[in-house]
Specification:
By secondary structure, the protein is an alpha/beta fold. The chain has 16 helices and 14 strands. Helix 13 packs across helix 14. The longest helix is centred in the middle third of the chain and has 32 residues. Bound molecules: nicotinamide-adenine-dinucleotide (NAD) and uridine-5'-diphosphate-glucuronic acid.
């Protein structure tokens, strides 16, 4: 089956980059990315390519090349569904905030609503591809929605989870370790899988395209994220042991990672993992384990998230210890708001939680990030205050202690502490003499990313790491 028209519902961090790369690599396929968020679609269509809503190295150049040729961004979901043989779902699947499974299970409202829209607008048989990360057996639910709402046509549901990481999305998409496609074990299922394989084959070597049943594909995505996050929590838990014993976590990480059975990737100690997915997907796995009567498995994976929360608290405690637990009248400069370098995404960033804890202890914050807009930083902080049930007067009072800067050196004016929270490259090459001139006692630099070199600092600046 030859695919000439595809659409993707969801123009976010996954939908935008993945469809841009498909459009680039398959010029004969027409690709339409749709979203219900009009502002986001406007931004994707902006004349100024610096205003596209996702910052990813290399993405802007691809959009420049293919947008308006065979890549289109639109809010017209009906037309896009009608015209496409294959429809990707790349909508967000956050952790549920209410109802059964609250705080753990994935909220499938967006996926289910998208399936209803597809069923409503479908005018012939369609292949629906899950790109969003979903609990095991969601494909079954989607098929049920599609076929109950539209019994004129047949739908094949494939699971094709996305493994890209933000900041390296284009590189990851060009050169994927693997592409995973799960489908029904039936002639129609196989045909649908092959249609998707034909698309990826344009640039991914065929031996890297893995085929599986749908449930394996869905579970493999949760498992991959859980195992990646588990390595980070493992090394972070050991960083706490290092602090107590005098061992050096970087040396330990290097020594452990040199074992080829273990490998060195994802052993970088840090202030804790952030991002919209690791915590969400592990909690989803925890919920899946609980609902399948596997409490020991649930507890095992839950511990990965608990250590991550512990690491953030441990970072804050490193500062509190120096000020006898009270940060009133202390200004702290935070370097970095995004959850990792090379992205403008701040979802679940450690910076958010660390700010909340520092503000609760009375600190004032000066914040600098090269890519996250000031308005977004304020919203992130305010959202945490709303969760604390604070009224708007109290919230404004706390927010008045937060200042956002476009210039990193101005951000250090009169601060007692610099806290390094994101590993942006520019933080490695700072003029520390200039920073020292702006700072005041006790001239504390707390490095949550191990990127500040002691050799570059004068004796006055006291460097401690997580
Ligand atoms: P996102 O929030 O950046 O984008 C999702 C988009 O879907 C939003 O723009 C939203 O408006 C749109 N949307 C939601 N419901 C819709 C509907 N009914 N109709 C039209 N548009 C709708 O999310 P994301 O980061 O791109 O993640 C999407 C999925 O991919 C999630 O399941 C996530 O777990 C998974 N994933 C994310 C990454 C990542 O790096 N962000 C990587 C791999 C997998
Ligand atoms: C992660 C996975 O790496 C992707 O494969 C997956 O597709 C994606 O989640 C997803 O499902 O959303 P991402 O969260 O974008 O990608 O970025 P990572 O590079 O995995 O980093 C996640 C967090 O862990 C960041 O806060 C990062 O700073 C932190 N990290 C990473 C560490 O603290 N130490 C490390 O060694 C590696």
């Amino acid at each position: 089956m030859k695919i000439s028209n595809i659409c993707c519902i969801g123009a976010g961090y996954v939908g935008g980059p993945t469809m841009a790369v498909i459009a680039l690599k398959c010029p004969e396929i027409n690709v339409v990315v749709v979203d219900k968020n009009e502002d986001k679609i406007k931004a994707w269509n902006s004349d100024d390519f610096n205003k596209i809503p996702v910052f990813e190295p290399g993405l802007k150049e691809i959009i420049q090349e293919v947008r308006g040729k065979n890549l289109f961004f639109s809010t017209d979901i009906k037309l896009a569904v009608e015209q496409s043989e294959m429809i990707f779902l790349a909508v967000n699947t956050p952790t549920k905030t209410e109802g059964q499974g609250m705080g753990m299970a994935a909220d499938l409202t967006n996926v289910e609503n998208s399936a209803r829209e597809i069923a409503k607008f479908a005018n012939n048989n369609k292949i629906v591809v899950e790109k969003s990360t979903l609990p095991v057996r969601t494909a079954e639910k989607l098929k049920e929605i599609l076929e109950l709402s539209n019994n004129n046509y047949r739908f094949q549901v494939l699971s094709n989870p996305e493994f890209l990481a933000e900041g390296t999305a284009i590189k990851d998409l060009f050169n994927s370790d693997r592409v995973l496609i799960g489908g029904d074990d039936s002639p129609e299922g196989e045909k649908a899988i092959d249609a998707l394989v034909d698309i990826y084959k344009k640039w991914i070597p065929e031996h890297k395209i893995l085929k599986s049943n749908v449930w394996s594909a869905e579970l493999s995505k949760l498992a991959s994220n859980a195992m990646l996050a588990q390595r980070i929590s493992s090394i972070n838990s050991l960083s706490a042991v290092c602090k107590k014993t005098g061992a050096n976590i970087l040396e330990v990480s290097e020594a452990v990672g040199a074992d080829s059975r273990i490998g060195s990737k994802f052993l970088q100690p840090s202030v804790g993992f952030g991002g919209s997915c690791f915590q969400k997907d592990i909690l989803n796995l925890v919920y899946l384990s609980i609902t399948n009567g596997l409490p020991e498995v649930a507890e095992y994976w839950h511990q990965v998230v608990k250590i991550n929360n512990y690491q953030r608290k441990r970072f804050v405690n490193l500062i509190l210890e120096k000020f006898e637990n009270n940060l009133s009248n202390i200004t702290i400069s935070l370097f970095g708001w995004s959850y990792k370098k090379d992205t403008n995404d701040s979802r679940e960033s450690a910076s958010i939680y660390i700010s909340e804890m520092l503000l609760a202890k009375g600190a004032s914050l000066n914040i600098y990030d090269p890519k996250v807009p000031a308005a977004k930083i304020k919203v992130d902080i305010e959202n945490r205050l709303i969760l604390q049930d604070l009224n708007s007067k109290d919230r404004s009072q706390i927010l008045s202690r937060v200042k956002i800067f476009n210039d990193i050196y101005e951000c250090c004016s009169n601060v007692s502490v610099v806290a390094v929270l994101t590993e942006w490259l520019e933080f490695k090459n700072l003029d520390w003499q200039l920073i020292e001139k702006q700072m005041k006692d006790p001239y504390l630099i707390v490095d949550g990313r191990f990127i500040i070199s002691k050799n570059k600092l004068s004796n006055k600046l006291k460097l401690i790491s997580i």
